[in-house]
C-alpha cells in the first residue's frame, strides 16, 4: 500500500521489519520500487530474493521495472534465467520506442505499418501533443509516433501464433497479486 501511495521509505521500513519475508512481501517491495521509478532498487532486491521464492509475479514486476527504465540488458538476463516462461512473463518484455532488437522486428514493423495504414484509412490523424520533445530535422509526427513502444507491443501480440483474447498495454504497469 505504501509503495502505491508513493511512500517507498514507509514500505521499506515495514519490509525490513519482517524477519523472513515471503514471496508476497518481496514482490510487493519490488513493485513499490518499480512504481516509484526506483528501478535499480527493484532489480537489486529481486537479485537478493531467494530463488525458491521467485515466481511469475515477482519476475513480471522486475521485468517491468527494468524495461521502463531502459535496463534492457538486465531485463534480458533475468528473462533468460527464468526457467518456466509463462505467456505473461514473455509479454512483460517491453519494447522501447523504435526498438529493433527483437528477433522478429521485421514482422513487428510490418504489422505496425499495417495497423497504421488501417487507422489512417479510417480517419486517424497522428496527434503531436503526445510528443514531448522537439522533432529532429528528419522526423515527422508520424515517424515518431509510428514506432512507439506501445504500438510495437500491440503489433508483436498480433503476430503471435496463438492470438491473445485481449491485449493490455500500460506505460507503468502494476503487478499486484
TrEMBL record:
<dbReference type="InterPro" id="IPR002885">
    <property type="entry name" value="PPR_rpt"/>
</dbReference>
<protein>
    <recommendedName>
        <fullName>DYW domain-containing protein</fullName>
    </recommendedName>
</protein>
<dbReference type="InterPro" id="IPR046960">
    <property type="entry name" value="PPR_At4g14850-like_plant"/>
</dbReference>
<dbReference type="Pfam" id="PF01535">
    <property type="entry name" value="PPR"/>
</dbReference>
<dbReference type="InterPro" id="IPR032867">
    <property type="entry name" value="DYW_dom"/>
</dbReference>
<dbReference type="GO" id="GO:0008270">
    <property type="term" value="F:zinc ion binding"/>
</dbReference>
<dbReference type="GO" id="GO:0009451">
    <property type="term" value="P:RNA modification"/>
</dbReference>
<feature type="domain" description="DYW">
    <location>
        <begin position="123"/>
        <end position="172"/>
    </location>
</feature>
<dbReference type="InterPro" id="IPR011990">
    <property type="entry name" value="TPR-like_helical_dom_sf"/>
</dbReference>
<dbReference type="GO" id="GO:0003723">
    <property type="term" value="F:RNA binding"/>
</dbReference>
<feature type="repeat" description="PPR">
    <location>
        <begin position="22"/>
        <end position="52"/>
    </location>
</feature>
<dbReference type="Pfam" id="PF14432">
    <property type="entry name" value="DYW_deaminase"/>
</dbReference>
